[in-house]
Amino acid sequence: MDQLSSSLAPPRTSHKSPAATTPLEGAGSVTKRLGNELMTLMMSSSAGISAFPKSDANLFEWVGTIEGVSGTVYSGLTFKISITFPPNYPYVPPTIKFDTPCYHPNVDLAGNICLDILQDKWSAVYSVHTVLLSLQSLLGEPNNASPLNTDAANLWDSPSEFKTELRKHYRASTENSN
Amino acid sequence: MTTYPLENLVQTRWQNTFDRLNGGEPGITGLLNISQAWNTAREFLRPRDIREPNSKERNLPVVKTCFDALNEAKLLPRLLETFVEDIRQQESLITAEVSSFMAKYDESEDVTVVKSMLRRLVEWWKAWAPIHELGYTLLSTFNLEFQTHLFSILPSSFPSAFKKLCQSTVGAEPDAQLWGDFERLGLLDRYENLIASVCYEQIEGQVLETCVGRWNEPMLAGLRGWMADKIVPWMILPYARGAKTHEETRSMLQGIGSRFDFHVCKTLCDLRTSEIFDIIVDYPDSNCALLDLKECLQRVDQRSQLVQALRRLNRKRLLHPGADTKDILTQYVLMIRCLRIIDPPGVLLYKVADPVRRYLRERPDTIRSIVASLVGEGGDLVDENEPIQPLQTQFEDYSDPNWEPEAIDAGPEFRTNKPSDVISTLVSIYDSKDLFVKELQVLLAQRLLAIKDGNFEKERQNIEILKLRFGDAALQVCEVMLRDMTDSRRIDQHVQSQKASNLHPTIISKHFWPALQASTLNMPGQFKTIQQTYAKEFTTFKPDKRLRWLPHLGTVELSIELQDRTVEVEVSPLDAAIIELFGSGGKTAWNSQEIIAELGDIDNSSLNKAMMTWIDRGVLFDRGDGTYEVLEIATSAVKAARPPAPKRPAAQPEAPPVVTVQQQEAEQMRVYWKFIEGMLTNLGSLPLDRIQTMLKFAPGYSRTIEQLGTFMEAARREGLVTESGGQYRLNK
């Protein structure tokens, strides 16, 4: 397991060990796991990250909120993301997209994210909580080696210009979309 | 030219008429005969003033021939008209009589005046009435004319006078003549309602007189007996005068009789309906009244009135803040029993109980009251004789041979609850029995912790009974609690056998007990040593377990040796801890701050209370500068200086040691707030009902939307959220 991502894994989460379930157990166990993750997320008090199911009918579609950490160029900005869980979660990572336009080296203009733990480095011990934390830190520390947005990657080293470009792209979410 | 046919026509008609009147007699003798007959007939019929001597010749055969002649000549209709004319001319005579009688009555209010007036009127009628032999038409025309006139001249005071007259006949000797007069004058038909109302009033009077407030004996049978004795004989005259045989009387009275019987039922039903609340309060003494009411309701369809009345009375007298929850429950239970008597299927109960149940649901101490009565703590909600039944959702048993369809006024939500007993009904006030089980645990915890002599049999018995109701699974936790108590004793015996100790702890499994009050009390001095020694012994006995002390619960028996005396007391651990401070070490004077620093975080009021306990017992005294010292030698001076403090029960913790369900709920609500915060952060603003449905993600969420609304309102007041147009959003 990768050094970086394993450090992000929760030491021992309260919910059921995912190793005990098999993919064949069906949606019931996935719902249970998602419910547990929601509970853990709600009870954790990590500043600036949050997520909640979009509607009470579907536990597989969540909306998340990430606030930029102060001290980074994203400070003071709030980003909405959408999280879609596959039916065989947690063996397959959730699909995460930025809904708020995010000018970032590892986020393309459609909001797709390039983050190793959301692709090949995914592990079933990760949870929404850890993913959100990773995304929050990704904002401040992009992986410029594999950019999705090359312009942003090139601008990264000149913070003031990057900030101007970021402000140009950023649109505060209209909260009353629902 | 044109006049000829007309002239001819007139002439033909004239001839025909003449022939008819003349009857084919020679000359005009026929006409003369007719004229003679006319005069005789008219004179015979002419209404006379009966005050004049009667000179009417009753030469019937002559009159008869006259009439026949007139009939032949087809003059009878004409004669009738003339007769009516004549009557009209004479009517003023009657008018004068009636007004003089009525004037007399108005003065004296004496019904005999009315009676004699009617008598007189009948005389007039008899004098004027044409004889039967002259045919029915004549008589009925006369009757109509006479009555029309009579009714037109009777003054407005007559109906009430007539009613009084009728009333005076009730219970008196039957006066057949009077009723005959009534009929002759057409008063029976015209004032039928009045006559009936006389009877109704009699019934109402009787019911009010005999039945108000008397619920301990059946009334309906007595009333029916009274009807048979008093009213039925009277009824024969107005309603069954013409009857010749007993059978005929019966059949004629049947219709009106059942009307009156209905009225008896209705009056009694109205009365009992208005008294229903007190009847219920009086149950079971009022059983007879309920049975009466049941029978009346079968006859009179007033079920909805009963429901409304009882609901109104409940609202007015029961469901208000002034009523004790226990009283409401008692009344509700009585209501269940009473309405079961009136209406076994329970439709009435269902309708009446709904507001009561809803109200009880809002009361915070309802569950506690019910649970308290379940375990036999005061209150007699539970009927000992009632068989204990398990709580189960009831299904309709269609294979039941005694199955009956739902009553016609049962609403769509009505569910029969035939087999359920009172407790099941009470428990079903709440949607789930979990609340009860929880409250039961809290109560059991309190009771178990209060037991000192180690006799848990009663509690065990209670739990066994409750198991029958709630099922084994629900009471598993209570089982564990009970076992903890017995285990504690066993463990204690073992530990004592290893190393004798003054400490006898109750060892409980944290997981299965309701939350107990936390405390930061540190027992000082020898208590600490005792605790530690005991804990060590315990760990040797049960290596995988660890003792966590709740030192503030329990009692301490102390014997304090002072210079001149020994004080034996049983006090709370806090009291003991304080006195230990004074006794150990060299420091003799302590102030509050020092005590708090030594013993941990104690709030001031409980500290003051503890100090007062010791001062009351004459062990400590206040030096006046906020510090306390041990009173080694009891001096009368100090005692006199201290005003006699009110005796307080020592060593009694005021608050029960167990955290109540409400406190637990408040704790849970904090969890739900996290969820609300989470959803509002991510989904923007949400209406209340969306929040409610979204909260299903929170484990164990079971609040109603009203409770949530109250909570959100509180959050809004605290400035956590803002609300506009029913949408809540986080306040940033």
UniProtKB/TrEMBL annotation, chain A:
GO molecular function terms attached to this record: ATP binding; transferase activity
Annotated spans, Disordered: 1-27
Catalytic residue positions: 114 (glycyl thioester intermediate)
Keyword ATP-binding included in the entry's annotation: yes
Signal peptide: none
Domain UBC core: start-end pairs: 29-175
InterPro entries: Ub_conjugating_enzyme (IPR050113), UBC (IPR000608), UBQ-conjugating_AS (IPR023313), UBQ-conjugating_enzyme/RWD (IPR016135)
Similarity comment text for this entry: Belongs to the ubiquitin-conjugating enzyme family.
Keywords from the named record: ATP-binding, Nucleotide-binding, Transferase, Ubl conjugation pathway
CDD domains per UniProt: UBCc_UBE2C
Superkingdom per UniProt: Eukaryota
Name recorded for this polypeptide: Ubiquitin-conjugating enzyme E2
UniProt xrefs under SMART domains: UBCc
Pfam families to which the protein is assigned, alphabetical: UQ_con (PF00179)
TrEMBL record, chain B:
InterPro entries for this protein: ANAPC2, ANAPC2_C, Cullin-like_AB, Cullin_homology, Cullin_homology_sf, TPR_ANAPC2, WH-like_DNA-bd_sf, WH_DNA-bd_sf
Cullin family profile domain mapped to chain residues: 395-615
TM stretches of this protein: none
Gene3D superfamilies: Cullin Repeats, Cullin, Chain C, Domain 2, Winged helix-like DNA-binding domain superfamily/Winged helix DNA-binding domain
Pfam families: ANAPC2, Cullin_AB, TPR_ANAPC2
Gene Ontology CC entries for this record: anaphase-promoting complex
Keywords from the named record: Cell cycle, Cell division, Ligase, Mitosis, Ubl conjugation pathway
Matching SMART domains: APC2, CULLIN
One example of a Gene Ontology biological process annotation: ubiquitin-dependent protein catabolic process
GO molecular function: ligase activity; ubiquitin protein ligase binding
Family: Belongs to the cullin family.
Name this polypeptide is given: Anaphase-promoting complex subunit 2
The organism of origin for this protein: Rickenella mellea
